[in-house]
Design a protein that fits this description.
alpha+beta, Zincin-like, Neutral Protease, domain 2, Immunoglobulin-like, 5-stranded mixed sheet, elongated, Peptidase_M1_aminopeptidases, metalloaminopeptidase activity, peptide binding
Length: 735
């Protein structure tokens, strides 16, 4: 065995003693020799490498920041910060009251104190935050923290502070703090920042806005202060890294006066006394959320608790007690129970506050655990029409469902596909939920006449846009895209079966939405499930091909049905009021059903015409329908022979064709005449016979009235207008 000799500054070290020493020397018998010179060289090399690494890290970070800031693009696409906060501890102190204890009607200010907790990705000396329409007060303080769980009090007791250089760039809305020492990756730090902000009466002027009004009692002031953060708008509320993908944990506290209520995204944890007789509400931590998802509502509103059938705490906040409390109670609690079962996913938060604001300054807004609805009729039930009740129910359900889809709301909305898919999934789930908790209302059937038909009207012109028109924005386009997208999802749901489509939704909302947050992952999941479980798709097709044919084409298809011997002939056209022409651009799953024959799906793929052999023979002269229940987003025009069979079936009173499908047939006949595929004389002959047997159903008369209004508008001052007069005069005389 090798012998070991050790010297420490010339002194012998007795056996068994322990010490620290600067030089250890093993004899050559041990196989290792490290003398003083080599040790010094090694220390110098390590020091130089460390210094060089720190220099490169700092230079790289500064270069990245310079590339963005010098470009003049404050909302740059790239995430360029070496420091992305893990968490924020924020304290807001709004100055709302004057000396008389009344909320000021003019703009107010608020003070903010914040601790930003972060762990650098790389060694760096630069910390950058966005600060927007705020004022930074004093010099920030930077301290080291042992871990992310270290208390703020313990961090502040540490007397050591980093030397800082601070730069505020109002043009690029950035606060840049440069340290004179390197911040090591993997270590935790706290940056303390004080700031002030404005509470304006205009939502677009900052993070907070305020409104005061005398809505119910002339001498009693009502007011609220709320956030309504635009994408990347959290920088106007508090200094933060306000990018598209940055998420962090927020711990929020708000100073308030007695009699004032504060609502946040999470539950209230404690209320404690504060300076000058004030109170401070401290809320539970959020999960990982984007800064622009934060929601605060400060007011003198009063809460009403709602009975919940699950673990979610529900409350509705209003100025005065609601008259339609029972309706809202039923809708909210039933929706939560049904959706959790349907999606097999718990509600994202453990509480939900719904604020009903009877004022136009805010409109509707939503963030995790907090929904703000601007709607007077939610407070008053007297004189409410059925249409208004439907609006209440659908509004509430839609906002609740959006809570499950909150991670899907891409911050910048730069991708049109993600935007319409988000809205389409919301509408689809709203329809499913409504039909289950209120089955007698027939909300899905009403959707086909009240929503789908008007959307198809707007989508029928040459200047219409496809769903993939990136960057295109207008109110009309938003209206068309969300409901057209809903119709596409309904078509896929019925084509591939509800079991497969719902399974895809479950997987997407439960897992994929948090990982990828894009439309492509949804279509990939659907394609995988269809391949695994369904025979309803040709082997040469995939879901991407089918969907692309619908989102990349503007307008929509019209399909004609003709009888040719024993067969049925399907032809595809592009429906367009300017020019309707044959096309093969859509991949359409055509659903055929009959009074006597089997139901089947025919795929129109890369063809303008498809023959269905023997289907007319199999129908045995009974009615044949395509696109029953408006399963697909297309119109259908029937030949005279098939229209006669449909009329005959309606006369029998067997109710084998439901009123809403009949309404769809009537609406499509009107549209077929407007684009020249049917003669107006044939349309009015059909209507004359149909009106004689029509029942007092919404599905029968709604499309008739709408059709004549449209014909009146379109055919006025044309040669075809005579047909309306020829039809209307005898009809009026006979009725």
């Amino acid at each position: 065995m090798a012998t070991v000799r050790a010297r420490h500054r010339g002194y012998n070290i007795p056996d068994g003693d322990m010490t620290t020493f600067h030089e250890i020397e093993f004899d050559r018998e041990g196989g290792v020799f490290l003398n003083r010179t080599r040790l010094i060289l090694l220390v110098i090399i390590v020091f130089l490498l460390t210094a060089f690494s720190a220099f490169v890290s700092r230079y790289t970070t500064q270069l990245q920041i310079r590339q963005v800031t010098e470009s003049g693009v404050k909302n740059a696409q790239k995430s360029f910060f070496a420091v992305e906060p893990n968490g924020y501890k924020v304290e807001f102190e709004p100055k709302l009251y004057n000396d008389d204890g009344v909320v000021v009607e003019n703009d107010a200010i608020y003070n903010g104190r914040m601790e930003v907790i972060f762990q650098p990705k790389i060694d760096t000396a630069v910390i950058t935050l966005h600060f927007g329409l705020l004022n930074i007060v004093g010099i920030p303080i930077l301290k080291r923290r042992l871990s992310i769980e270290t208390s703020t009090e313990k961090v502040l007791r540490n007397v050591f502070e980093y030397k800082l250089d601070t730069e505020v760039n109002a043009v690029n809305e950035t606060l840049t703090v440069t340290t004179r020492e390197i911040l090591r990756s993997g270590h935790f730090y706290s940056l303390f920042v004080n700031f002030t902000g404005n509470i304006s009466h205009l939502p677009e002027n900052g993070g907070f806005f305020k409104t005061t009004f005398y809505e119910h009692y002339p001498n009693e002031q009502s007011w609220f202060v709320a956030t309504k953060l635009a994408p990347q708008g959290a920088r106007h509320l508090l200094p933060c890294v306000d990018g598209r993908t940055q998420e962090a944990v927020f711990e929020v506290s708000v100073v308030r006066q007695n009699g004032t209520s504060v609502i946040f995204n999470t539950k209230l944890r404690t209320t404690e006394p504060y300076n000058g007789g004030l109170l401070i509400d401290r809320f539970e931590k959020t999960g990982l959320v984007r800064p622009d998802s934060l929601g605060l509502f400060i007011s003198n509103f009063k809460p009403q608790s709602i009975t919940s059938k699950n673990f979610v705490e529900l409350a509705v906040w209003t100025l005065q007690p609601m008259e339609n409390y029972s309706l809202i109670n039923k809708v909210l609690s039933s929706t939560l129970v049904f959706m959790e079962t349907y999606l097999e996913t718990k509600f994202p938060t453990n509480k939900l506050d719904i604020v009903i604001v009877p004022k136009h300054e805010i409109g509707s807004a939503e963030s995790p655990g907090l929904i703000i609805i601007e709607d007077k009729i939610l407070e008053k039930v007297n004189g409410m029409s059925i249409e208004q009740i439907l609006h209440i129910v659908e509004t509430l359900i839609e906002h609740i469902i959006r809570q499950w889809l909150m991670p899907m709301r891409v911050v910048d909305r730069s991708s049109t596909q993600e935007q319409w898919l988000f809205d389409a999934i919301t509408n689809f789930l709203r329809i499913v939920n409504s039909d289950n908790i209120l089955p007698s209302w027939n909300l899905e059937a009403r959707f086909l006449l009240d929503i789908t038909q008007p959307v198809m009207f707007y989508d029928s012109y040459a200047n219409s846009k496809s769903l993939s028109e990136f960057g295109y924005r207008s109110d009309k386009f938003s209206y068309i895209s969300s409901h057209k997208g809903t119709s596409i999802l309904r078509m896929l749901n019925y084509t591939f079966t509800e079991e497969i489509f719902v399974q895809t939704l479950k997987e997407y909302i439960h897992t994929e939405i948090y990982k990828y947050n894009d439309a492509a992952s949804f279509w990939k999941l659907l394609d995988d499930n269809v391949r695994l479980k369904s025979n309803n798709i040709p082997k040469n097709l995939d879901v991407f091909q089918i969907v692309n044919s619908w989102i990349r084409n503007k307008n929509y298809p019209l399909v004609t049905l003709e009888v040719q011997g024993d067969d049925i002939i399907l032809k595809q056209f592009r429906f367009n009021y300017n020019k309707t022409v044959p096309t093969d651009e859509w991949i359409i799953p055509i659903t055929l059903s009959s009074g006597s024959a089997y139901s089947m799906t025919i795929w129109m793929e890369n063809s303008k015409e498809v023959r269905v052999p023997g289907y007319n023979l199999a129908s045995k002269g009974s009615w044949i329908l395509a696109n029953k229940h408006q399963i697909g987003y297309y119109r259908v025009v029937y030949c005279d022979k098939l229209l006669e069979r449909i009329l005959f079936e309606i006369r029998t009173g067997n109710n084998s064709i439901d009123p809403f499908t009949i309404g769809q047939v009537v609406a499509d006949i009107f549209e077929g005449a407007l684009v020249g595929l049917i003669e107006f004389s044939e349309v009015f002959k059909f209507l004359t016979k149909f009106i004689e047997i029509a029942s007092p159903y919404y599905g029968h008369w709604h499309p008739i009235f709408n059709g004549f209004k449209k014909l009146e508008m379109v055919l006025k001052n044309t040669e075809h207008y005579d047909w309306i007069l020829v039809f209307n005069i005898p009809f009026i005389r006979n009725n």
